[in-house]
Amino acid sequence: AQTVTQSQPEMSVQEAETVTLSCTYDTSENNYYLFWYKQPPSRQMILVIRQEAYKQQNATENRFSVNFQKAAKSFSLKISDSQLGDTAMYFCAFMKARGSNYKLTFGKGTLLTVNP
Amino acid sequence: NAGVMQNPRHLVRRRGQEARLRCSPMKGHSHVYWYRQLPEEGLKFMVYLQKENIIDESGMPKERFSAEFPKEGPSILRIQQVVRGDSAAYFCASSPYGQSADTQYFGPGTRLTVL
Q1: I need a labelling partner for A73 at 20 to 30 A (CA). Which of A45, A59, B74, B82 fits?
Q2: What is the mean pLDDT of residues B82-99?
Q3: Is the pLDDT of residue B98 over 80?
Q4: Is the minimum CB–CB distance between A44 and chain B shorter than 8 Å?
Q5: A105 touches B: beta carbon within 8 Å
Q6: Which B residues 86-115 touch A at CB under 8 Å?
Q7: How confident is the model at residue B40, as a pLDDT?
C-alpha cells in the first residue's frame, strides 16, 4: 500500500517571500502521478500542480513549482512570491499509473499561513 | 462550464437518521469518486462509480453506507442510521475517462454533522 507523509503540520511565511512544503511517499510502483491540492478556508479542493513520475523535468505552474526526487521519494512544493490568497491547507497526493487505478492517497496536510 | 456540484453544502442529522449526499460531475465526465475527510485528516477514498456501475467500493464501510450513480441524475452517497463518527466532510470528484492519466476535479464538499 502507498503512504504519503507530510511532516510539517503548520508553516507560515511573509507575503512576497518563498516557502517550501515537504512531502515524502512510499511505494513499490515505478510509474505513478503526484499531486498537490490546496484547500482554502472555503474547503474547496483545488488542484495546484501535477507531476508524472516518468518525467524528469519538474512541473511548474506560475508561482508554484515542485522538486521531484524520485530516488528519494520526495515531492516538495515551492511557492514563490507568496500571496495572502495562498493561505490554505496543502495536501500532497499519490496515484498509481497502472491501468485504471484511480485512487488518490493523500497526506495529512500542511496548514500554510501567509502573513502580511 | 460548471464544475463539480455537491449539495447540500451542510447537512445536520440526528443519530439514527439517514443522510443523502448528492454529486453532479463536471459536464462530459462519467466517472465519480467519493472521499471522506475526517477532522485533522487528509481525504480518504471511499468509492468509485461509473454510470450505473460501482467499480470499486473498497473504501466504503461495510454497513450503513451505499452509493449509486444512475443513468440520469446525480451520484448519491447514502448513509443510513448515522452515528456521531460519521461527522465529516464528504467530497466528490469527477474525471472524464476513469484513467490514472486523468485529473480528478473536486466539488466543494458536504459537511455532515451528526448530533
Answers
A1: A45
A2: 90
A3: no
A4: yes
A5: yes
A6: 89, 91, 93, 95, 98-109, 111
A7: 79
Distance in angstroms (rounded) separating the CA atoms of residues B1 and B63: 37
Average pLDDT value for residue range A25-49: 91
pLDDT digits (tens, 9 = 90+) for A54-102: 888 999 999 999 999 999 999 999 999 999 999 999 999 999 877 655 7
Minimal Cβ distance to B98: which of A93, A100, A109? A100
- Quick check: A33 contacting B, CB < 8 Å? yes
For chain A, strand residue ranges (E) read 3-5, 10-14, 19-21, 24-26, 32-39, 46-52, 60-61, 64-69, 74-79, 88-96, 105-106, 110-115
The residue of B35, B47, B100 whose CB has the most chain A CBs within 10 angstroms, and thus the best one to mutate to test that interface, is B100
B32: which 3 cell numbers?
Answer: 465519480
